[in-house]
Every structure is written in C-alpha cells, then in structure tokens.
C-alpha cells in the first residue's frame, strides 16, 4: 500500500517528515488517519515499491463535519506510474520510487473565514493602488476602431489568458485579415522571413519523422509563428504595444488579490510568491510580460507616473520570482539612473523589498553554493529530492543529458521534433534518477533547438534576436535593442518556446517592433 503525505496547517509544501499508513478495516477498505490538530490542505499517495494491478474503487475524505468523495478522473499522476480507468475502477501500476498520486484540490474550510474582516484594509489599499494606476496610465489610443484595431487588441489582451481564449483570438485575426496579407510587406522585413524559415524547418522535421503528421504537438505549439509572421507585417502598429502594460497590471492585481486570500487562509507569506502568486500562468512567462512593460513605460513615460508604474511592475516581478528577468529589468532601470538620478527613489524601496522578501532572496542563495555542482558528476542520483538540485544545477543536468543523446549527423539536423525525441531525454532522466523532472524540456532554447533541429535550426534561432539587434542599433531604436538583447539572454536559461504563450509573446512583440519604426510609430517600415 502507498504511504500518505500531506500539506497541513499553514505549510506551503508537503511534509515528508511524517508519513501516514493505511490500515485495513473489517469491510476490506483501507483507512489512513491524519493528525487532526492541523487542517489538511493537500494529499499525496506515494508508491516507493513496485505495484502491479492495484485496483482503486473510490477515495473519500472524512472529517467531523462532512464526507467528500474524490473525483478520480482529476487525480494527478507523477513518476513511473500508470493510472488507468477500467469500468468501475482504476488500475494502478508503479515501477519504483517517488511515483505518486496527488488528490486534485487544496482543501479550504469554513473556519478559515472566521476573521475575514482582517482583509478589509489590504483590499482597500489594493483598490487605492488600482485607482492610482488608472490615473497614471496614458489613455489607450487604438482608434480608429476597426477590425484591425479590435482583433490586434484582443490578441494582445488575451495572450496570457488560458489557451482556448488566445487561440480563438489568433484564429479570428487570421480569418479577418487574410485578404490584407501582403507578400511585399513580408519580404521587406527579413525578420519575417527568418521566423517563417524557422517554422518551415520544424514542418520538414515532422514530415520526415517516423510519426509523420500523426504527432504534431510541436507544430501546433509553433503555429503562431506562421500565422503572425504572415499577418502582422501588413497591419503592424506600435500603438498596440501600450496594451501590454495594461495586461500586466490587470493580471498583476488579479494575482495579488487572490494571493491576499491565500496568505490570509494559510497564514503564510510564501503564498504570494512564484507559482502561488501567478496561479494558472507560469511565473516565468508572466515575468516576460512584466519586463517588456517596464521597458515600454521607461521609454514612453516621464515623471512620477513613470516611477510609480515601474515600481508596481517590479513588485509583481519580485513576487513572480524569476531571477534573470529581475536582474535584466533592474539593468534597464539602472541605465536610466545614469541619465536621471531620481531613479534612485525607485531602486531603494525595491532593494528593501528584495531583502525582506525571503522567497526571492532564497532563490538567489540557491545558486551560490559550490558544493551543489558535485551532482553533475553523479552517475545516478539516489534521492530525487536531493538538496543539490536547484534552479541552476537542474538546468545544467538537463542540458548535459539532452546533448548526451546526440551523435553523428544529429549535430547537423537534430534528433527530431516529435514526442519520440522527448522520450529519449525522458529515459535518460529516469535512468539518472530524476523521476520528478523526467517530463522537463532542456530549459535552454539554444540547447532545445540544437537538440531537436541541429545546427541549421540553431542558426535560424540565433538570427532572430541578433538580426533584430543589428537593425535596432542602425535605427537607434531603444525598444528593439532592449527586447532583442532580452530575448537573446533569456533563451540561455529557459526554453521560451516550450509553451505556446512564449511563442505568442515573443513573436508578436518582435514582429510589431520590426515592422514599424520609432520615427513615425503609426506607419509601417515599408512605407
């Protein structure tokens, strides 16, 4: 039988110090009794030994007040474990350590809201901040109202919302602008052609793979490259970039409001950091939006409004917890400090927040321990929760294992872009002992692209930010320079196209920037 571990009370993470055992009852069911002095928030069932054909009929959570049935279809599965539905039961097969089932919800209790009045002041302060932001932001000019202005606005404002919404916006913009597509506009700006070439390479890889078009998950994720590189050149206008800061503030305040409730319920400030803060949206991708919003405001705003808006975006960035994006954003502000000493009024309070906000401070501390790098020499990692695995060493391990799968002609054309390639890395990670990270991508866009498409794909990838940077320098276009450098740098630490949100964001911003100019921001560069 599995061991049971729980998150309890105000804890943010599973307590692995206290396992709970199942005991067989007279009716042949099994029961695990938890410590009732703390509220149970989350439940996991760990299988540390091989299990074959263990049948699971139902799970119920019993408290003094109620009995709740768990929806087995919503259970999360991790590790070498299969969880298959067979009519009225589920069959469980587990192969080895660190495989687990996670029950699908965090438990909230009526008693959690007994002192809800304590949230009145924080929510009032939040509302005041929202009003001040509305007053500080310049009026959004997307006139004249037309199909173009409405569809581009929808695309940008829905970009960081759940999948079906922004996919619908992409379909809409493609369908309504198909007649406006101009080959002249596309070929005038070479960045469009580079992006189309990059996407075409992935199509060729898919065609000549063993799966062919039976497995097109990567192509589906990369499809915005094709659509946006064809549509945007004929309708690009920099005025729409002002919608990115609007999106950042709407999402940031929404996340902050929900995090206030989480902190109140759990009595733990860790619930205002990282994944807990950004909820459904990966915090790294939210930090990309925040970076560009900071650059846009730094370029287009002046005076108190500029520093106030930048300060709030930095606070959201601190809560999101991306170390590299935070440092790059700080560089943007420090460069401004050289020109304007008033920027110090922004940096001092931010420095205090970083010092006081322990989750972000701990993330920087993780990468400074040289002993952690010894894990790179291990042939097998016995403990999947080894303390030496942190943000940096995990990335180095992923790069090391991905590149180790390559040989011969792979260096020219890559290993492929389908799920079979993913399984190659997955098998190496399992053999290494990293079961909890077996589904990870290489966490480096250069390594990921080289691994999948070889030197040809890597060259096209590098050309996107490098060519844009060269053009930005020639035009003396600050936004292009900043965004191209940002894109070039963050690809070292993340597979930015590993999620469709990254494809949408980077493609949209770079295409709008490159197909317009800063001298007359409402005109196309081809004119």
Summary, kept brief:
The chain is an alpha+beta fold. It contains 19 helices and 12 strands.
Descriptive report:
- InterPro entries: O-antigen_ligase-rel_domated, WaaL-like.
- Its main location: membrane.
- The chain crosses the membrane at residues 116-134, 154-178, 190-207, 219-236, 242-265, 277-299, 311-337, 344-360, 450-473, 485-514.
- Keywords: Membrane, Transmembrane, Transmembrane helix.
- The model is unreliable at 519-527 (pLDDT under 50).
- The protein contains 19 helices and twelve strands.
- Among the domains are: 3-112, no CATH class; 115-144 and 242-366, no CATH class; 373-404 and 415-437, no CATH class.
- The relative contact order is 0.10.
- With 527 residues, it is an alpha+beta fold.
The 3D shape can be described as globular
Count of helical stretches: 19
What is the arithmetic mean of pLDDT?
87
**Alpha-carbon Rg, integer:** 25 Å
Roughly how much helix do the residues carry, as a percent range?
40-55%
Q: What is the CA-CA span between the terminal residues?
A: 71 Å
Which structural class fits the helix and strand makeup? Answer: alpha+beta
Percent in strands: 5-15%
Question: Major sheet: size, sense and barrel closure?
Answer: 5 strands, antiparallel
Number of E strands: 12
Low-pLDDT segments, ≥5 res: 519-527
Strand order in the largest sheet: 2-1-5-12-9
Membrane topology: Multi-pass membrane protein
Domain O-antigen ligase-related: 311-462
Keywords: Membrane, Transmembrane, Transmembrane helix
GO cellular component, one term: membrane
């Amino acid at each position: 039988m599995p061991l049971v571990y729980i998150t309890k009370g105000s804890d943010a993470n599973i307590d692995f110090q206290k396992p709970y055992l199942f005991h067989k009852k007279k009716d042949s069911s099994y029961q695990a009794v938890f410590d009732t002095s703390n509220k149970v928030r989350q439940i996991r069932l760990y299988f540390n030994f091989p299990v074959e054909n263990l049948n699971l009929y139902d799970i119920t959570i019993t408290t003094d007040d109620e009995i709740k049935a768990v929806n087995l279809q919503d259970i999360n599965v991790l590790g070498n474990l299969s969880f298959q539905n067979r009519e009225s039961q589920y069959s469980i097969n587990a192969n080895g350590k660190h495989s687990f089932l996670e029950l699908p919800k965090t438990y909230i209790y009526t008693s959690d809201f007994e002192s809800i009045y304590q949230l009145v002041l924080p929510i009032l302060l939040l509302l005041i901040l929202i009003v001040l932001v509305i007053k500080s932001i310049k009026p959004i000019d997307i006139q004249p109202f037309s199909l173009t202005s409405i569809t581009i606005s929808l695309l940008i404002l829905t970009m960081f919302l759940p999948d079906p919404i922004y996919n619908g916006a992409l379909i809409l913009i493609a369908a309504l602008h198909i007649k406006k597509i101009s080959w002249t506009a596309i070929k005038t700006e070479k960045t469009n052609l580079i992006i189309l070439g990059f996407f075409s390479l992935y199509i060729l890889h898919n065609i000549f793979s063993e799966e062919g078009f039976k497995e097109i998950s990567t192509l589906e994720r990369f499809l915005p490259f094709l659509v946006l590189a064809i549509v945007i050149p004929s309708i690009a206008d920099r005025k729409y970039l002002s919608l990115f800061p609007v999106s950042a503030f709407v999402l940031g305040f929404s996340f902050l409001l929900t995090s206030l409730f989480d902190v109140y319920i759990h009595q733990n400030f860790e619930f205002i950091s990282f994944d807990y803060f950004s909820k459904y949206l990966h915090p790294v991708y939210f930090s990309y939006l925040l970076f560009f919003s900071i650059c846009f405001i730094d370029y287009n705003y002046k005076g108190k409004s500029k520093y106030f808006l930048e300060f709030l975006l930095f606070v959201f960035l601190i809560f999101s917890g991306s170390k590299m994006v935070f440092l790059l954003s700080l560089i943007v502000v420090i460069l401004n400090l050289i020109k304007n000493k008033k920027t110090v009024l922004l940096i001092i309070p931010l420095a205090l927040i970083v010092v006081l906000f322990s989750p972000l401070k701990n993330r920087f501390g993780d990468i400074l321990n040289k002993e952690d790098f010894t894990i790179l020499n291990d042939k097998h990692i016995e403990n999947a929760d080894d303390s030496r695995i942190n943000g940096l060493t995990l990335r180095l391990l992923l790069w090391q294992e991905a590149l180790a799968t390559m040989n011969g002609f792979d260096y020219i054309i890559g290993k492929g872009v389908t799920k079979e390639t993913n399984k190659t890395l997955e098998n190496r990670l399992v053999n290494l002992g990293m079961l909890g990270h077996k589904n990870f991508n290489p966490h480096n866009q250069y390594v990921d692209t080289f691994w999948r498409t070889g030197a040809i794909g890597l060259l096209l990838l590098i050309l996107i930010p490098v060519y844009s940077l060269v053009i930005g320098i020639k035009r003396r276009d600050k936004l292009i320079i900043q965004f191209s450098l940002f894109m070039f740098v963050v690809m070292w630490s993340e597979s930015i196209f590993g999620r469709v949100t990254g494809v949408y964001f980077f493609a949209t911003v770079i295409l709008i920037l490159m197909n317009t100019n800063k001298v007359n921001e409402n005109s196309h560069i081809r004119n």
